[in-house]
Design a protein that fits this description.
- The protein has 126 residues and is an alpha+beta fold.
- The chain has one domain: Trna Endonuclease, Chain: A, domain 1 (3-Layer(aba) Sandwich).
- Helices cover 30% and strands 37% of the residues.
- The chain has a 5-stranded mixed beta sheet.
- The protein is globular and about 40 Å long.
Length: 126
């Protein structure tokens, strides 16, 4: 799969995850927050909790689930990017925060798994 096709598939997966999370009661803050060190796919409010969401898609879970691809290296990048977001948006700094993973397997009718509090800052040293 080429880079452009991968981008389209990724965008569709993020849109599917966004719709799913909104149905679960989360409110969007921003999408695709980027910094030099990384990107956070979705940032949402879940009640009074600021939720940083990594979306992972795989066509098949035959070899592993998409969520298992969020390794320590990726977690560190997300944590650093979240810290930068909070520094740039101090209005969110006093909220509790959480790091979730939305795992999507299969095509349009694929399954969604939402892992709340999938990892914590002390799980992956910055």
């Amino acid at each position: 799969m080429g880079l452009a096709a991968r981008g389209i598939v990724g965008d569709r997966a993020e849109q599917k995850a966004l719709r799913f999370l909104i149905r679960q009661g989360l409110k969007p803050v921003t999408r695709n927050f980027r910094s030099r060190g990384g990107e956070i796919d979705l940032i949402m409010l879940h009640g009074n909790c600021l939720t940083f969401v990594e979306v992972r898609y795989r066509n098949s879970s035959r070899f592993s689930t998409p969520a298992l691809t969020v390794d320590r290296h990726k977690q560190r990048k997300i944590l650093r990017t979240a810290a930068l977001f909070l520094a740039r948006k101090p209005q969110f700094a006093r909220l509790a925060s959480r790091f979730d993973v939305v795992s999507i397997t299969g095509g349009e009718d694929g399954t969604i798994e939402w892992l709340q509090d999938a990892f914590r800052p002390f799980d992956s040293t910055l």
